[in-house]
Amino acid sequence: MKHIIILTDGAGDYDIESLGNKTPLEVARTPFIDELAQKGEVGLVQTIPRGMQPGSDVANLSVMGYAPDKYHTGRSPLEAASMGVPLIDTDITFRCNIVTLTEDEPYEEKTILDHSSGDITTEESTQLILDIREKLQTEFIQFYPGVSYRHLILWKEGPYDFDLTPPHDILTQKITNYLPKGPYKDILYNMMSHSYDLLKDHPINIARKERGLNPANSIWIWGEGKKPQLDPFYDKYQLKGSVISAVDLINGIGILAGLQPVKVEGATGTLHTNFDGKGKAAIEALLNGDDFVYIHLEAPDECGHQGDLEGKIKSLELIDDKIVGAIKNALDEAKEDYRIMILPDHMTPIAKRTHTSDPVPYIIYDSTQNTNLSQNRFTEKSAKTAGNFFNDGPSLTYYFVNPNSRK
């Protein structure tokens, strides 16, 4: 039996007036997902534990079967694992976004316009981070380039008592009340404000503005953490497999869990990612010995952060066609038995442009038990009325792998 989790990051939403009080999941054309919902199980799961922030780090640990209150030590060390940055117990890491701030005010009074600098290319942002590293790196504080706007800072023997805010939580707001807090806040603040001086007139940003793109004019430091330790996924579920994602966070969780990350050319984590390539990579892994594949699709989340309703709907339709449909057709043709679970890690409502802790809908489809037709769809409303509810992600994942555990 093959097991596939298709993680539609941020896909859940609230009713939107312009859609006739429907959600993107309700209006998107998703015939393959609809078929799975009609022949499978639909319900809700609480992926974010009470009292924890609804970040993709917490939520994806939860969905992959690792209780966040036990295993979560911060977001950035998970990304460090994917980037090949070795950590020791006294290291502290931080996520380092390259963001777009307004230009006319003093630094502490600026407004954050874009947490991703217009989904800046990896080539551009790497050069910016390397230039920042040349000016700001010290013996103890080191910079590592990542993918697109997502980068890493490592502070050797650093402190672990900051109060830091994710930039996607404060879009269009003044940064005054969200600057670093804690005994060593000035060190982080000085790096952030100095980065603005280094980047505001950088040739890359001059060229971006000439093309009508958001300039990547500051770093934003958040997501601090310590070296994590995950139990092997195989020991938990007796499945060996792969993880397919464009982002270091998900690949890092996979690596720490003993899963094999699969690199897909052209995978960006945006609406313009290589959906075809991800689907084909999953099929190849499953037909060549893997028991399990975790496919992470970031595009609905990024569209949610950008307030891009049309893009969010389009991303769901692409996932349905290029990922769900392609995998289902290939496994059916190969006469493989399989179970598919589809769900978001968290909601990223268009109206809020950030994550929420609401329960999210899930589908579980079993190719060996697909005769019980219903009127279910993969929507927030149908999941709620179905009456199936899991209090946490690990319980759902255990049930997905062991379907008799609730009978």
What brief labels describe this structure?
407 residues, alpha/beta, 36% helix, 19% strand, globular
- What is the overall number of helices? 15
Largest sheet: 8 strands, mixed
Order of helices and strands: EEHHEHHHEEHEEHHEHEHEHEHHEEHEH
Strand ordering within the main sheet: 10-9-11-1-12-13-3-14
The Cα radius of gyration reads 21 Å
Note the beta-strand portion: 15-25%
> What overall form do the CA principal axes indicate?
globular
Measured between the Cα atoms of the first and last residue, the distance is: 19 Å
Tally of extended strands? 14
The whole-number mean of residue pLDDT values reads 96
Alpha-beta classification: alpha/beta
Point out poorly predicted stretches: none
Helix content: 25-40%
Summarize the structure in words.
This protein is α/β, with parallel strands linked by helices and 407 residues long. Helices cover 36% and strands 19% of the residues. It contains 15 helices and 14 strands. It has helices at residues 24-27, 31-39, 56-63, 68-71, 76-83, 122-136, 185-199, 203-210, 233-237, 248-257, 275-287, 299-306, 309-333, 380-386, 393-401; strands at 2-8, 10-12, 41-45, 92-101, 112-114, 141-147, 150-155, 218-225, 241-244, 260-262, 292-297, 338-343, 360-366, 389-390. Strands 10-9-11-1-12-13-3-14 form an eight-stranded mixed sheet, with helices on both faces. Strands 4, 5, 6, 7 and 8 form a five-stranded antiparallel sheet that branches. α6 crosses α7 (185-199) and α11 (275-287) runs parallel beside α13. The longest helix has 25 residues, at 309-333. The two termini are 19 Å apart. The mean pLDDT is 96.
